[in-house]
């Protein structure tokens, strides 16, 4: 029977190897976003650096070992609200024997003793990882704010369509001079403020940024609708990370219901098709009912949801 031991930094390489091998199966699933490579593809050396560093919370992290080798681990990192789960993993040959659950139980108990009220999974849990969801549910965790969870939607096929905007509305590509106005409109639509620098850092400075994929709809000279799309091929995994990602589709309240959203997304899809960049992926949240309905009506299907789980400890 494996022993459940507190995590020590000397175990970093061993646990990194375990994590790397245990997450291999996730690599075959379609990425849930294209802008940055998903965490589970992290090379073993990068995992070892994190495990040997200060972000790990050793007091709350436990490892099951057998014959001097790690076979399961629940590793927590220190966050603002205390420790949170970073990676929980079991060697495929040792699964379904309660090892991950025992490591988590030891960690939860340590956190409870330290006075922590609630424990969350820091790294988001993908709905396609059925074993992870089942483990968390069986230990009393539940999804945090389910309506606000991220969902990845994906469209594989597209036949280009003509786009005609209603009278009084004009389509244009975003110019650098427009970024301050774009930022203001984006802030009004999405309810969170960002400065023009945010757009420059997040999108414009990317090597795959192409201004022709960023559209604005103008009415009486002012921007009233926005959308963006990037064709992405990352060096890190050029075989798999290929496609387009739609970003920041929105229409100001007073101009909704006039097909502007549908026309903007249609233009994005025509653009991706023209650059041989299917599938098209986008991230949204279930509470955005108009958006999800629109995407579904164009052929997008939900690929997965990903979110944190939480459990009260006291
Ligand atoms: C999503 C959004 C861009 C739609 O803009 P819009 O110009 O009003 O949408 P359209 O007039 O083009 O509607 C197109 C389709 O969207 C869906 N839709 C639009 N409003 C809807 C609503 N209130 N309820 C349900 N479905 C709705 C319908 O499928 C509609 O097609 P239909 O009119 O043939 O039934 C707009 O509601 C918005 O800006 N929302 C806030 C920002 C946001 O959530 N963006 C998405 C981020 S991922």
Features:
single chain; alpha+beta; Aminopeptidase; 8-stranded mixed sheet; 4-stranded antiparallel sheet; binds coenzyme A
The total beta strand count reads: 15
Average per-residue pLDDT, rounded, comes to 94
Structurally, the number of domains stands at 2
- Low-confidence segments, given as residue ranges, are none
- CA(first)-CA(last) distance: 30 Å
Judging by the overall fold, what is the CATH architecture of the largest domain?
A: 3-Layer(aba) Sandwich
Q: In percent, how helical is the residue content?
A: 25-40%
Which geometry do the CA atoms define? elongated
The count of helical stretches stands at 9
**Rg (CA only):** 23 Å
CATH-assigned homologous superfamily of the largest domain: Gcn5-related N-acetyltransferase (GNAT)
* Top-tier CATH class of the largest domain: Alpha Beta
Describe what you observe in this structure.
With about 325 residues, the chain is of the alpha+beta class. The protein has 2 domains: about 5-145 and about 310, Gcn5-related N-acetyltransferase (GNAT) (Aminopeptidase), CATH 3.40.630; about 155-280, Aminopeptidase (3-Layer(aba) Sandwich), CATH 3.40.630. Helices cover about 30% and strands about 30% of the residues. It is built from 9 helices and 15 strands. The chain has helices at about 10-20, 25, 45-50, 100-115, 130-140, 180-190, 195-205, 260-275, 290-300; strands at about 5, 60-65, 70-80, 80-90, 120, 125, 140-145, 150-155, 170-175, 215-220, 220-235, 240-250, 280-285, 300-305, 310. The strands form 3 sheets. Strands 6-14-8-13-12-11-10-9 form an 8-stranded mixed β-sheet, sandwiched between helices. A 4-stranded antiparallel β-sheet has the order 1-2-3-4. A hairpin with an 8-residue loop joins strand 11 and strand 12. Helix 1 packs across helix 3 (about 45-50) and helix 8 crosses helix 9. The model has no long low-confidence stretch (mean pLDDT about 95).
């Amino acid at each position: 029977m494996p022993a459940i031991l507190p995590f020590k930094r000397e175990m970093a390489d061993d646990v990194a190897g375990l994590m790397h091998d245990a997450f291999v199966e996730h690599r075959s699933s379609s990425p849930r976003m294209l802008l940055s490579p998903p965490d589970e593809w992290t090379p073993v050396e990068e995992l070892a650096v994190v495990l040997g560093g200060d972000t790990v919370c050793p007091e709350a992290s436990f490892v099951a070992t057998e014959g001097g080798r790690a076979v399961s681990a629940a590793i927590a990192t220190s966050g603002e609200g205390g420790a949170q789960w970073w990676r929980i993993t079991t060697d495929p040959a040792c699964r379904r024997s309660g090892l991950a659950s025992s490591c988590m139980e030891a960690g939860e108990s340590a956190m409870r003793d330290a006075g922590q009220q609630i424990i969350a999974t820091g790294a988001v849990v993908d709905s396609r990882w059925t074993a992870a969801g089942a483990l968390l549910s069986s230990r009393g965790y539940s999804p945090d704010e389910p309506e606000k969870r991220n969902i990845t939607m994906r469209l594989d096929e597209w036949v280009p369509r003509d786009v005609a905007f209603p009278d009084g509305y004009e389509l244009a590509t975003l110019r650098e001079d427009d970024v301050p106005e774009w930022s203001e409109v984006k802030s009004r639509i999405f309810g969170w403020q960002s400065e023009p620098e945010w757009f420059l850092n997040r999108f414009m400075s990317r090597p795959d940024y192409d201004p022709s994929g960023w559209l604005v709809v103008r009415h009486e000279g002012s921007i009233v609708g926005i959308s963006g799309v990037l064709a992405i091929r990352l060096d890190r995994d050029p075989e798999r990370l290929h496609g387009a990602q739609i970003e920041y589709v929105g229409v100001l309240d007073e101009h909704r219901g006039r097909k502007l959203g549908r026309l903007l997304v249609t233009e994005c899809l025509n653009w991706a098709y023209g650059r041989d960049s299917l599938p098209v992926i986008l991230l949204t949240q279930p509470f955005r009912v108009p958006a999800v309905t629109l995407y579904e009506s164009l052929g997008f299907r939900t690929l997965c949801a990903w979110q944190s789980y939480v459990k009260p400890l006291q």
